[in-house]
Recover the amino acids of this structure.
């Protein structure tokens, strides 16, 4: 018995959806000010026009599993599922360590006839201190900026998963205190700990495909790899699916930075990394970076202006990947 899965990884850019009351049936016609009045939260809800675009694009992709970054907690994810995705999914999210209240989580389509278990690693020390903390006696190690959330899919036995996902959102380049330029040192420690979790699972479940994914906030590809990710290819069997698909580098971009009001060249900072067992299941012709429509211009690789970028449902582009023939009862 096997399973096919269509998955999508997406940083949904501040998907806050906290409501004091359920909007009526005609909510899609509300003005933005009317939409925002449904909440008194300190966090502004994601703009309605962006939520409606996310709904449309996800309906087009029709994924079995959605891996999400920048979710404003479990309530936001449940509201998004119920109001915009017709309650087609089961929600899996554990609040992490974010100081911006943005979490990582999963939506598992109800048509998938299997069970899941979500496991948090938010309390795992990353064996890292900032330089100014090294002389402080008994200073505890920092933890993940957000989390590494494990999703185990299984049939009958929770201890016998047939597929494992690791989803993360590593330290951003923001450094308001001026203690870690571009967040490189913290991100490197987080990534090293992420790989240790992967190795542990690989040893525990040697026959189970494992997928490591998320917003890594840097270049983890084989091309001009950022320093914090250089041990990826020397110490693991993990491979970026866009490398496996041999996409041209410009077509791998998932994020288009903004500087001084100008859109810069796109870069890949979102990754789906496959273990050796997972590589065997990748359906090449159905896996790609999904492009948004831009201002009636069709689907270019990315926005060319700030105005175009502001119309998009997220500042990240999703990665769609399809796995075919996943064995349901691997022998471990």
């Amino acid at each position: 018995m096997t399973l096919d899965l269509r998955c999508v990884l997406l940083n949904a850019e501040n998907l806050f959806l906290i409501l004091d009351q359920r909007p009526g049936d005609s909510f899609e016609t509300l003005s933005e000010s009317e939409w925002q009045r449904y909440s008194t939260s300190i966090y502004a809800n994601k703009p309605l026009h962006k939520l409606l675009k996310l709904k449309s694009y996800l309906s087009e992709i029709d994924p079995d599993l959605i891996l999400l970054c920048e979710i404003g907690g479990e309530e936001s994810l449940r509201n998004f599922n119920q109001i915009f995705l017709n309650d087609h999914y089961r929600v899996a999210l554990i609040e992490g360590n974010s100081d911006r209240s943005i979490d990582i989580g999963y939506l598992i389509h109800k048509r998938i006839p299997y069970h899941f278990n979500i496991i948090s690693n938010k309390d795992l020390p990353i064996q890292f201190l900032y330089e100014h903390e090294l002389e402080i006696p008994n200073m505890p190690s920092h933890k993940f900026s957000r989390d590494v959330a494990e999703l185990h899919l299984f049939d009958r036995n929770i201890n016998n998963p047939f597929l494992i996902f690791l989803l993360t959102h590593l330290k951003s380049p923001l450094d308001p205190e001026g203690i870690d330029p571009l967040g490189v040192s913290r991100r490197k420690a987080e990534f090293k700990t992420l790989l240790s979790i992967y190795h542990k699972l690989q040893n525990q479940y040697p026959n189970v495909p494992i997928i490591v994914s998320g917003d890594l906030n840097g270049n983890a590809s084989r091309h001009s790899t950022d320093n914090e990710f250089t041990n990826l290819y020397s110490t693991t069997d993990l491979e970026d699916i866009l490398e496996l698909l041999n996409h041209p580098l410009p077509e791998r971009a998932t994020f288009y930075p903004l500087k001084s009001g100008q859109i810069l060249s796109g870069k890949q900072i979102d990754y789906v990394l496959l273990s050796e067992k997972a590589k065997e299941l990748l359906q090449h012709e159905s896996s790609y970076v999904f492009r948004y429509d831009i201002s009636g211009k069709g689907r270019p690789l990315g926005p060319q202006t700030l105005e175009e970028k502001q119309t998009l449902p997220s500042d990240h582009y999703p990665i769609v990947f399809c796995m075919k023939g996943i064995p349901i009862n691997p022998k471990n």
In short: The helical segments are 32-36, 48-61, 73-84, 184-204, 231-235, 241-244, 276-279, 306-311. The two ends are 16 Å apart (CA to CA). The mean pLDDT is 96.
